[in-house]
Amino acid sequence: MVxxxxxxxxxxxxxxxxxxEWRGIGVRIEDDLLVTADGHENLSAALPRSAxxxxxxxxxxxx
Length: 63
Description:
The chain is an alpha+beta fold.
């Protein structure tokens, strides 16, 4: 079985409980996990996690 884990944080534009620079954005990191009778494997483990890493990856592979 393969399943996707999608933890995320989403801040409303008018949410005064978070700093102004974070208002109106969302951050989500997804992982795709392969689960077998012998264990599991994170299929997306090699993907970048930092903003700079994602931007570099997009320039190289995604546009």
